[in-house]
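2024-03-11 09:14:02 INFO worker-7 job=invfold-0412 stage=load source=structure_tokens
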């Protein structure tokens, strides 16, 4: 069950002790794990007690055991390799008596286009994409706050990472946080850290992202999803009320002039600080000249062992698709095509039905 799951997955007892984990999870964590002894809060939070008992947000494991239903929460796994925000889903594993004495937990890294090899600077034939890269190069050398705008899946996180990689802070860490699923009032603990417990016996401190990103870059995704309290928290950082040594890059899926931005009710003091240097990223449907190269690069990444070929008619079919999911949807379509192909040539019939039908209707 565990090894069949492509996401990092772990079986945890109701006593918080890890019983088993798959290879994907073993490659993620840095703590030595002894089944039956090591606890989940030690592995993922570096905390001697469960997060709920330490005064942090409620523990999804405890809630899952109590109500016997799957639970989902966003956590920052500060001791994981490539530490960052993960969407944690906990599934109950009832025994023969119907009692839940163990759960299976999966961890999905959050962040736009997480896991992609950066392809931004390699594929920019369209004018809009060249403009976005030119703006990125110009601002990379300055510690200005940048706001990346673009639809979901357009590569906002990739571009943020590329700006970091060509900046004077490239030797420092690149730390990301998605505001998707973040509860109101939780941003302060995420970026500034917090006291794990007021109990002297288990007292400790969880470092915040400001410290984790010291001398590097802090990337905050979907900043327009923040509530009023968290907007004030971020404004404190931008005003310099909290000492820090980092570069801030934010992103949103909304265009700057859209009604959605106005409905988000971003405080003007915050909006004009984060939007002082906006960089719009075009969707794939406005980058038709980039699509063949994007598809070939992504194909080589998803199927590195076979030298697969996208036939001309397949590229034509892809170019007739609007791809509302952008790079994420294109990558998923190519994964499907590799599974449907016995040889090395990918034909239009090998594409997912929705892609093939969309190309036929638009051709």
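2024-03-11 09:14:09 INFO worker-7 stage=emit residues=363
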């Amino acid at each position: 069950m565990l090894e069949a799951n492509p996401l990092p997955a772990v079986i945890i007892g109701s006593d918080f002790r890890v019983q088993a984990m798959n290879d994907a999870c073993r490659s993620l964590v840095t703590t030595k794990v002894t089944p039956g002894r090591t606890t989940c809060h030690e592995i993922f939070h570096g905390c001697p007690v469960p997060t709920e008992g330490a005064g942090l947000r409620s523990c999804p494991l405890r809630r899952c055991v109590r109500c016997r239903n799957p639970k989902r929460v966003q956590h920052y796994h500060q001791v994981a390799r490539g530490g960052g925000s993960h969407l944690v889903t906990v599934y109950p594993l009832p025994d023969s008596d119907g009692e839940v004495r163990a759960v299976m937990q999966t961890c999905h890294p959050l962040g736009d286009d997480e896991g992609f090899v950066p392809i931004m600077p390699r594929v920019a034939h369209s004018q809009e994409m060249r403009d976005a890269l030119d703006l990125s190069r110009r601002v990379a050398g300055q510690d200005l706050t940048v706001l990346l705008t673009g639809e979901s899946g357009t590569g906002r996180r990739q571009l943020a990472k590329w700006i970091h990689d060509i900046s004077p802070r490239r030797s420092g860490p690149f730390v990301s946080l998605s505001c998707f699923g973040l509860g109101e009032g939780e941003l302060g603990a995420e970026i500034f850290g917090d006291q794990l417990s007021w109990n002297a016996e288990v007292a400790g401190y969880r470092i915040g992202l400001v410290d984790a990103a010291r001398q590097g870059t802090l990337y905050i995704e979907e900043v327009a999803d923040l509530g009023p309290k968290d907007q004030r928290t971020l404004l404190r950082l931008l005003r310099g009320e909290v000492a820090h040594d980092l570069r801030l890059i934010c992103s949103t899926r909304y265009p700057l002039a859209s009604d959605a931005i106005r409905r988000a009710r971003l405080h003007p003091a915050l909006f004009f600080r984060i939007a002082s240097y906006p960089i719009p990223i075009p969707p794939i449907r406005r980058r038709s000249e980039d699509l063949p190269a994007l598809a070939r690069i992504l194909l080589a990444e998803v199927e590195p062992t076979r030298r697969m070929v996208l036939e001309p008619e397949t590229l034509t079919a892809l170019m007739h698709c609007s791809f509302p999911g952008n790079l994420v949807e294109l990558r998923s379509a190519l994964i499907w095509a590799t599974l449907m192909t016995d040889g090395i040539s990918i034909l239009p019939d090998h594409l997912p039905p929705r892609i093939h039908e969309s190309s036929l209707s638009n051709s």
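2024-03-11 09:14:09 INFO worker-7 stage=report msg="Residues 150 and 166 are 21 Å apart (CA to CA)."
2024-03-11 09:14:10 INFO worker-7 job finished
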